[in-house]
Structures are given as C-alpha cells and as structure tokens.
Amino acid sequence: MSTQTPQCLIIGAGGVGVVTAYSLFLNKGSTVSLVARSDYDKASTTGYKLSSCDYGEVLNWKPHHLFRSVEDAASSKTFFDYVVVTTKNIPDGPTPVSSIIKPIIESNDKVWKERADFKEQKKTTNVVLIQNGIDIENEIKEKFDLASRQKSTTVPQVALISGIQLISSTKVGPCEIAQKGHDHLTCAAFDKNDEISVKTAQNFISLYTNPGQNQAHFDSNCRYTRWKKLLYNSSINTLTAICGLDFTRCLQFGTAEGSTEFEIVRPAMLEIIDLAKKIDDITIEVDLVDFFVDITRKMVYTPSMGVDIQKGQLMEIEVIVGNVVRSAKAHHIEVPHLSMLYNILKILQGKLKEQRGLLKFDELNAKIVE
Amino acid sequence: MSTQTPQCLIIGAGGVGVVTAYSLFLNKGSTVSLVARSDYDKASTTGYKLSSCDYGEVLNWKPHHLFRSVEDAASSKTFFDYVVVTTKNIPDGPTPVSSIIKPIIESNDKVWKERADFKEQKKTTNVVLIQNGIDIENEIKEKFDLASRQKSTTVPQVALISGIQLISSTKVGPCEIAQKGHDHLTCAAFDKNDEISVKTAQNFISLYTNPGQNQAHFDSNCRYTRWKKLLYNSSINTLTAICGLDFTRCLQFGTAEGSTEFEIVRPAMLEIIDLAKKIDDITIEVDLVDFFVDITRKMVYTPSMGVDIQKGQLMEIEVIVGNVVRSAKAHHIEVPHLSMLYNILKILQGKLKEQRGLLKFDELNAKIVE
C-alpha cells in the first residue's frame, strides 16, 4: 500500500458540496480539490464563508486546490482517488452524472497509464455519489462498462460508493454557505459483495469524520437506507412538487377526511414498502409511514423537489421515483399511486425544460423539436 | 293548460349564457330575462354584441328583461317557469348552484301563493342545468327537498332538466361574445321516470331551437351523455389542470413510450367506462377512448379546467371528478387513476382558494382558518 495522501475531488460546490469538502479538509487525511464553477474567482481570492452548526463561523476558507470546471481538474495530471459527486442527479437533464464525471474517469485512465509506479499500486477510481434516489449506480456501471474494467489490467478499476447525507445546508450567496442541520453521512458499497468498494467506503469514512463535529458511519446495506429515504421522497417530495406547495398545505387542503394523507401519501408509501420487500427482500418498518407523515404535519416545510419547481429548476424525478416505477414494472408489481406521481412529474419536467430553453415545442406540428 | 308565454331566466351571462338567452329570444316562444351582473349597465344601454357562427354579427341586442342580480330578478314578482343556469358548477366554492338559484325558488313559491290563478295551473319551477359533470342534480334535490315538494299542494314542484351543450363560445369583453363552435344542446330529464321533467325537457327544446341555426334535441338518457362527456373531462381536462398545460404538451412531454397516454389518460378513461357499466349499466363505447385522445393529439388546446387554473379561477373538480370518485367508493369500485387526479386537484383548488382570499392558512398552527 502506498502511504501517499489520497486525492479527493468534490464536484458540486453547493450547500452540500462545500461542507463535504471542508469536512475532508479539516480531517487532514486527503488533498482536497473542489470544482467551484461560477464561484471560482471569488473562491480563489477571498475563499468561502461557512456559517455551520458543526464547524461554527469559518472565514476565507480555501481547499487545497480549486478548479473552474471538471475539465480543468481533468487537465491537472492528478490521479483523483475519490471523485465525490454532490450535484443533483438528473439523468434526463443536460448533465447526467456519467457525463459530469467522464473527464475524470478518462484523465485518471491516462494518468495511470503514464505513471509506471501507479500500475503496481492497482489504483482504483472511487466514485462517491452523495445523492438521492435508488439505482443511481446503474448509469455509471453501463456508461463505463465497469464489469470489463474489473477484469482489465490496462485501465484502473472504478469502485462505486453510496453516500446518503442528512444535512440542511444551503448556498445563500456566492461562496457563502449556511449549514443549519448537523451533517450525518452514511457510506456503503453500492455492491455489498464487492470487497474493494466495501473497503473504499470504510476508508472514505475515516477521511471524512471529524469527531465531535460531524458524523459518518459505514452502512452494510445501502439498499435499505435508500428505500427508507424513498419512503419520504417518492411520496411527499413528489407531491409537493406537483402542487408547488409545502407539505403542510398539501395535507390541509385535502378534504376533511384526510384525502391527501390517506388517498395519496400513505398508499404511495405502502407501495414503496411492498417493492422493497418483493424486489430486495428488505423490510421497511411500517411505523416509518406515520413518522414521515407526522414530522411534517405541523411544520410548514417544502422538500427539495417542491423548492426546485418553485425556482424553475429541473427535478430529480428519475432517481427518486422514475427508477422505482420502472423497477416495479420490470417485476410486474402494480404501483398505481407512484406511477401517477411519476407520470405527472414527467410532464412538469417537460414544462420546466421548455421554460429553461432546454426543449423547444413546435405547436404547429405538435412535436418536441430535437 | 295556460297559453301564457313562459318566463325564462338565464343565470350566468358568459359565453354560453348569452348565446343561450339569444337562442330563446330569437325563437320568440318565451319571455327572456338575463342576470347580467357586472355587464348590467352596458347591457341596459348599448346591449350585447355577438359574433356568432350560428347567428352572424348581432349588434345592440337586449333580452326582454335584464337584472343586475338574481336577487333583483327574485324581487320582480315574476314567476319564472324556466330557471336556466349556465354558470360553472362549483359546490366547494363560495356560490354553489343551490345558493345561486335559492332566491328564485323562494320567490316563485311566494308568487305562486299570492296568485290564485296560478294554483289552478299547478305551476312548476323548471330548473335547467346547462353544466358539466355528473350527479349535479343531487345538491338541488337535497337542498330544496324535492321529494316532499312533489307531494305538496302548498308549494310549486321543481323539475330538474339536464342540459349538455357542445359550443365554443367565449366572453371576449364586457357584453361581447365570440361564438366559434356551433351550438348543439341536448336536454333530458335528470330523472327519466319523472313525466313532468321529461315533458319540460321537450318543451324547453321547442322554445330553444332555431331551425337552420342552432341544434337542440331531446335525450332520453342523460346519464349516458354525461358519462360520455366525463370520459374526456375526468381524464384529459383534469390532467391539463394539474399540469397547467395544453393537452398536446401533456402528451408530448410524457416519455417516449407514451406515458401520458398509456399510464394516465387511457387508464382513467377505462375507469369511467367501468363505472358507467357497474353503476348505471350504461355501455360507453371503448372506441371513444381513441377518439378523445386523437382529436387533441395534434391540436394545441387547453380545456376548461386547464384554462381556469391558468387564470387563477376555481375549477369544477367536484362535479367533473369528485362525484365520480365518491360514487366509485360508495360502490366499492377501485379507481386509482381518477382518485389520484381528484385528490391532487383538491389540493390545487385549496391553493387557488388561498390565492383568491377565499381561504386563510395559519402557518403557525398549520391549519385552515374557518
């Protein structure tokens, strides 16, 4: 094993990404690079300001390296051991995750080939997806043909690490982050039978944890954790997006008999529980249905997709509910409530795309112009 | 039988109501009164302008009588034989149809009692609902206890006539109506076994028809006609409202595999066909599913509820889909697609009510303030 400091590249410099980069930086176990994009100039000069419930007021912070773009990072002749993706995951948008990380996968391949000492180390490109949803690893697996990489001796392997983060952190201005909820990161191998990924997930936690400040722990089964988070996201998050309202209003504007709760949200949640059992033999506790409905019953709160649609931003519909519905269909399991939520959101995503100029609709021929 | 000219009162002076009033007026079979509301002053002076595909350019037209409000009509000491309601039917809004017609039901009762000659004629207040939806007569039946009126000798009976109009007519300015689609009115007794209502429906058609210009015909079974119209309205109209888009975009923004059509619209339509059969033993032809989807596939068109939500107006959700879902529930028939459309629309109706100041939401206590 090399004793060289691992190189981490964080892609996505929003509320989550900057705190993630700072946590790795503070730990001192790795060299931290951040793709800062539109904040690059300010980040390079004055640095970041974090108002963090975990780390206090942090002023003028800079990671070890800053890049303006993923392409710039790819040109740096660095082998990035960890490619940590904290962007939204929108495969139906202009920048699916596979296209975001492609320059780094390819530059790592090149750097590895050029440096003889690396070959002996059997380097691995470890992709850590700190993102919502389920089956998000499949896009990467297919695009980069990970199966053949595993057998190859001419390109580095790619290990896929699942990161699920509970955090409330928002970018409130250029290079300004307000973190209001404690950071709790759960890491797992997407493939729990892949020893390299399991080891990498554990290593990443040791690079990430700052005892007494943030929390990170290893998760032996990310499918359970992801299904559990979907219980909330596929039902409540999706509904608030369709309605463009906080969930409390969605609940209260239902009929007196509780139509929102009993005709939409709970049936959709029970479909998730049913799917987790039938597809993965995973038991999601039914009590969680009450828990998730109750925590937001009295708190006027709009989850991520509801916020996205209000801001006119594309939503993570494919990873949060599209993959679920496709999976159900492949297994011949009926999920009428999730399916309706998904298929309506699909239309609304099209509406957002047209508003953002990502899609042009030809009214005369009633067709989307490619 | 009296040879006296029947008195018709039209409530609702929008695109449909004004053409309806004009059709009755031109027929010369009745005395036509119109509740003009905000257009009253202009209507009383310069009158209406109709640009009509049935009647050509009609300038400075006035009905026999104009009223500013239903209350003013009720104060006129007239017994209105026909109370023709062409407003939207929104029982969950501030003016359900029963409250709109209440002053006339009551003033007719009073006029009838005061005039001895009327008693001998066994006068009937004929309520003609030219409106969308199904089960819309029940609200009237219950509010005015029509069953006991039928046995009474101290109040006039109330007959309920179903009017279903195919017309494309819009109020484009104060007292200005543009009628682009030919008027085709279908009348029936809501209760096909009630002889008085059947006779009245037929009489109304003879007062309404202007041969060679408009079309009106008697319908022996309004349930068939209403279920058939719901096939379109409960599925396509509701979906465009949820999405705030024309139906063509709803279709095209679905996935490549036609998700809007095959996962939302057609399943919802098949639920309507199933309900009509099971509840009323009425066969709605399955071919109509293709017909309704196909007519709007290439035509960028937003149906009424989609227009309402874009304008911030309350939608006819209860009569178009709420009654359907309640009926299904009462008969223990599963209608998951219609139920989702309805329960989402219920939330959006609450959002519209809050926007219009018809509902106040107390965020602190997470409650609707009554």
From TrEMBL, chains A, B:
Source superkingdom: Eukaryota
Classification via InterPro entries: 6-PGluconate_DH-like_C_sf, 6PGD_dom2, KPA_reductase, KPR-Related, KPR_N, NAD(P)-bd_dom_sf
Residues in Ketopantoate reductase N-terminal domain copies: 9-190
Identification of the protein by name: 2-dehydropantoate 2-reductase
Entry-linked PANTHER family: 2-DEHYDROPANTOATE 2-REDUCTASE-RELATED (PTHR21708:SF30), PROBABLE 2-DEHYDROPANTOATE 2-REDUCTASE (PTHR21708)
UniProt xrefs under SUPFAM superfamilies: 6-phosphogluconate dehydrogenase C-terminal domain-like, NAD(P)-binding Rossmann-fold domains
Organism annotation: Hanseniaspora osmophila
Gene Ontology, cellular component aspect: cytoplasm
